[in-house]
C-alpha cells in the first residue's frame, strides 16, 4: 500500500539526508557538515513530535497512517547514522 502524500514528502527528505550522510561519510567531513544535516533532521523530528504527519488521537493511532511506521524507522536510522558520524570526530 503506498504512503499518503504528506509522508511521501518526508520520506523523500529523509532519504536525501541519508544519501548525503553516506556520501559525506566517505570524505573528510567536519562537525559543521553534520550539523547542517542534523538541522534538516530536527525540522522533520519536530513535525513528527507535534503530530503533523497524521491524525493521532492516541498512542494506538500513532502508526495507523499508511507509511508512518516506515518514516518513523527511517527517522531513527538517520539520527543514529549522524550520531555515529559525530562520534567518529571526537
Overall description:
Helices cover 69% and strands 0% of the residues. The chain has 90 residues and is mostly helical. The N and C termini lie far apart (42 Å). The model has no long low-confidence stretch (mean pLDDT 85).
Detail the topology: elements first, then pairings.
Elements (H helix, E strand, L loop, with lengths): L4 H21 L5 H19 L18 H22 L1
Helix pairs in contact: 1-2, 1-3, 2-3
Categorize the overall geometry: elongated
Distance between the termini: 42 Å
Structural class: mainly alpha
- Mind summarizing the main beta sheet? none
Strand content: under 5%
Query: What's the SSE pattern?
Result: HHH
Number of helices: 3
User: What's the β-strand tally?
Assistant: 0
| Percentage of residues in helical conformation | 55-70%
Q: Which regions contain 5 or more consecutive residues with pLDDT less than 50? A: none
Short description:
With about 90 residues, the protein is mostly helical.
Features:
69% helix; 90 residues; 0% strand; mainly alpha; 3 helices
Amino acid at each position: 500500500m503506498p504512503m499518503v502524500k504528506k509522508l511521501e514528502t518526508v520520506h523523500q527528505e529523509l532519504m536525501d539526508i541519508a544519501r548525503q550522510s553516506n556520501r559525506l561519510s566517505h570524505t573528510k567531513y567536519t562537525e559543521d557538515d553534520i550539523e547542517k544535516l542534523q538541522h534538516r533532521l530536527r525540522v522533520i523530528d519536530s513535525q513528527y513530535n507535534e503530530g503533523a504527519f497524521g491524525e493521532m488521537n492516541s498512542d494506538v493511532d500513532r502508526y495507523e497512517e499508511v507509511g508512518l511506521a516506515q518514516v518513523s524507522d527511517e527517522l531513527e536510522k538517520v539520527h543514529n547514522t549522524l550520531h555515529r558520524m559525530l562520534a567518529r570526530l571526537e
